[in-house]
Structure formats: structure tokens, C-alpha cells
Amino acid sequence: MKKNILFTGIAALGLIYSCATNPLTGKKTLNFVSNSELFPSSFQQYGTFLKENKVVSGTAEAKKVEAVGIKIKLAAERYLASLGQTDYLKDYQWEYKLVDSKEVNAWCMPGGKIVVYSGILPITKNDAGLATVMGHEVSHALANHGAQRMSASQLQTLGAAGVAAATGGKSAEKQQMWQQYYGIGSQVGVMLPFSRSHETEADKIGLTLMAIAGYNPEEAINFWTRMSANSGGQAPAEMLSTHPSDATRIANLKAMIPEAKAIAAKFGVVFK
């Protein structure tokens, strides 16, 4: 199994000695993919998506999505400038679109391309609820989580190749067994926790952005409480999910709110 140890060691080094630093957290992050590689593809995919789906424009709801999105963008610019990262967003091309869909979801592609599905609006209820969602999604893009997931997938593939090399002399059944062990272990033990950590990080950054933008971060608790009620307890077990459970997320948010308010106060935004 020496080859297996070698490939596992390469993957571990990739996770530990990553290639970029997140300016919003100061943490080193796993990122082998540059914005110059990622953004053009992202922008193209976004354009294709908009052509293939029903974009809502000109309505009060569509205007609200754009207005809240712009406030979150400006908050991100102010926050990054305060961290000495004025050029960080130079390649971002912001767009905020409302799409007609019953799906309760929203997302932001690398480079600032945002979609909010109309199905989530009854749960956001107000501007602060919408800011909770958009702040979270924008934070995924600002923290380069998409690039990090791509990088982690590359390492996961490398690990699978290592397992294949290490078990090449064994029977086909043994090879398949080891690949299954590796697939389950790497997914549950590495990839899913990695994804959940991204969600928690995006929650934290998102709270800060919505607070700087003037939206009370306490409203994030109300939004996620409504989301939890809407799911009806149908979410998978946390350890098998890409997202923290609603209870974990709400508990984390409550602990994060004081810091978000403290940072917003530095920008002159104070909540009673």
C-alpha cells in the first residue's frame, strides 16, 4: 500500500498547503483555479441559464432583488476596502436576476452572477430576509468557494487514482471494494464537511455584509426559522448533507451576530 500512502499524502498536502488566502477571513484556502480561468466560463453559463429560464423584469419584486443586491455589493466593496483589498473585485461583473420558479433557492456564480428564484420570496418576506439570502450567496462567490470545490474534486480524483495504483495487483472485487471504501470515506469524511464549512463561512461573511448594508442581522434568525418550518423536517442527516442542519445553522448565526454588528458599527451602522 506504499503507493496509496503516497497519493494520500499528496492529497493531504494539497489540503494543508493551499494556494490562496481568503481576504475576508485571513485563512489559507484550497484553490488551484484562478479567476481568469473560472470567470469566463461562469459568465457564459450564467448567460445560457438566463436564456433557458424565465427571467422576471420590471416588477416590484425584480426591482427589490436588484436593489438589495446592489446594497450587498456596495457593502462588500466597503468591507474589502477596509481590509486593504480595493482591487479584489475588479474582475467581478455583477448581475442580479429574479427567475420565475417554484424552487426555494438562490445562488451566486463565481464573478458575481446572482439568481434569486421567485419561490423563495414568500419565505424571505422582507428586504432583510432577502439580504440574508443574497448576502450568503454573494459570500460564496467572494470566498471563491466554487474554485475551492473544483480544487477539492481534483484532489479527490487524485486520491482515487492512488487507490487504483495501490490495488492494481489485487482481484477486481478487491479493487472495487477499496474504491468503494475510498469513495464513501472521502465523501463523508472530507468532501461533505468541506462543503458544510463553506456554508458556515458564507453565513458569517453574509451576516457582516447585510449588517454593513444596513439590514439587521437578527433577521437572519427569523429567515432560517421560516426556512426550517418550510422544509418540514425533511432534510437529510447533517453528516450526509452538504449543508449544516437548520438547528446548527441557527445556533451558529446567533453566535455570529454580535461580531457582525460590531463590524457594521465601524462603518457607522448601529442596531438597537
Describe the protein.
Belongs to the peptidase M48 family. This protein is of the alpha+beta class and 272 residues long. It has one domain (2-265). Helix content is 63%, strand content 7%. The strands form two sheets. Strands 3-4-6-5 form a four-stranded mixed β-sheet, sandwiched between helices. The termini are far apart. Mean pLDDT is 81; it is low at 1-17.
Topology:
Layout (H helix, E strand, L loop, with lengths): L1 H15 L3 E2 L6 E2 L5 H18 L2 E2 L3 H23 L12 E5 L6 E4 L3 E5 L3 H4 L2 H16 L2 H22 L5 H41 L6 H13 L14 H20 L7
Parallel strand pairs: 4-6
Antiparallel strand pairs: 1-2, 3-4, 5-6
Helix pairs in contact: 1-6, 3-5, 3-7, 5-7, 5-8, 6-7, 7-9, 8-9
Instruction: Give the integer mean of the pLDDT values.
Output: 81
The number of domains is 1
The major β-sheet equals:
4 strands, mixed
Low confidence ranges: 1-17
Percentage of β-strand residues? 5-15%
Query: Separation of termini?
Result: 61 Å
Helix content: 55-70%
Number of DSSP-assigned strands? 6
List the main descriptive attributes of the protein structure presented here.
272 residues, 63% helix, alpha+beta, 7% strand, disordered N terminus, 4-stranded mixed sheet, single chain, two-stranded antiparallel sheet
Concise overview:
By secondary structure, this protein is α+β, with helices and mostly antiparallel strands. The protein has helices at residues 2-16, 35-52, 60-82, 121-124, 127-142, 145-166, 172-212, 219-231, 246-265; strands at residues 20-21, 28-29, 55-56, 95-99, 106-109, 113-117. The longest helix is centred in the C-terminal third of the chain and has 41 residues, at 172-212.
